[in-house]
Write a structure and sequence with these properties.
It is built from 6 helices and 10 strands; from the N terminus they run ααααααββββββββββ. The chain has 208 residues and is α+β, with helices and mostly antiparallel strands. The structure holds FE2/S2 (inorganic) cluster (FES).
C-alpha cells in the first residue's frame, strides 16, 4: 500500500475500512486471476506507474501468464486506447521481465545450468547469470538455495552489489531478505522466489 493510503487509513480509519471492504466484496464472484488482471487494467487506465508495477507483480505471482496480461491490455483497447497500452508496454520493457521477452512468451518451464557446484563459494551468497535470468545462490556445505533476483515487491532486478553478508536489500524501496531462508526481514512482507534445483554431473541446475 502506498504511503498516501497508509496516511488515509490512519486519518479516516472508518471510511477507509469501508472502502477496502467494498473493493474486496466487489470481486467476490471472480477467480483470483481475473481479479488480478482487472486490477492491472485499472492501473493502466489511471496511469499509476507504481500501482501498475505492483499489481502486475501480484498477478504474475498468483499465476497470470505474460500472454494473459498482454491479452488483457489489448482487450481493454476500447477503454484504454493505444496511448495507454503503449505507456504500459514501455513500463514492461523497462522492467525487462524475462518471461515477457518475445522469445519466452510461449516457453515451457525447463532446467537451466547455473554454475559448476565446486566453483560456488561456500558460506557466501553469489550472483549468477543463466540463460537471460539473474539468480542468487547461497551454498552452505551440501545445501544449496537458488533465488530469483527479481524483487517480490515490483520485480526489480536486484543487483549483485545488494548483497551484504547473507542479507540482500533491494535498492528500489529497500525490502531486505535473508538469503538463508529467502524471507523478507525488513520493510516488506513477501519472500524471494526460490527455484527448484538439482545437481547433475557437478553442475547446479535450476528450474523456471
Ligand atoms: S521493487 Fe520495491 S523493494 Fe524491490
Amino acid at each position: 500500500m502506498s504511503d498516501a493510503l497508509n496516511y488515509l487509513v490512519k486519518a479516516r480509519p472508518e471510511a477507509m475500512t469501508a472502502y477496502f471492504t467494498f473493493l474486496k466484496k466487489a470481486g467476490d464472484h471472480l477467480d483470483t486471476r481475473t481479479r488480478d488482471l482487472i486490477s492491472v487494467i485499472t492501473k493502466v487506465a489511471v496511469q499509476t506507474e507504481g500501482g501498475f508495477r505492483q499489481y502486475l507483480t501480484r498477478a504474475l505471482r498468483n499465476g497470470a501468464t505474460p500472454n494473459e496480461v498482454i491479452d488483457a491490455l489489448l482487450m481493454a483497447f476500447p477503454v484504454l486506447g493505444l496511448a495507454k497500452i503503449v505507456w504500459a508496454t514501455e513500463i514492461l520493457l523497462d522492467m525487462d521481465i524475462p518471461e515477457f521477452r518475445p522469445e519466452n512468451l510461449d516457453a515451457e518451464p525447463a532446467w537451466h545450468t547455473v554454475a559448476a557446484v565446486e566453483a560456488i563459494p561456500d558460506g557466501r551468497p553469489e550472483w549468477y547469470e543463466a540463460d537471460g535470468r539473474h539468480v542468487f545462490v547461497y551454498r552452505t556445505g551440501e545445501e544449496l538455495r537458488v533465488y530469483d533476483s527479481r524483487c517480490p515487491h515490483q520485480v526489480t532486478d536486484i543487483p549483485h552489489l545488494a548483497i551484504d553478508g547473507v542479507r540482500l536489500t533491494c535498492p528500489k524501496h529497500e525490502w531486505a531478505f535473508d538469503l538463508d531462508s529467502g524471507d523478507c526481514v525488513a520493510k516488506g512482507n513477501r519472500p524471494l522466489r526460490r527455484f527448484e534445483h538439482k545437481v547433475e554431473e557437478g553442475q547446479l541446475l535450476a528450474y523456471w
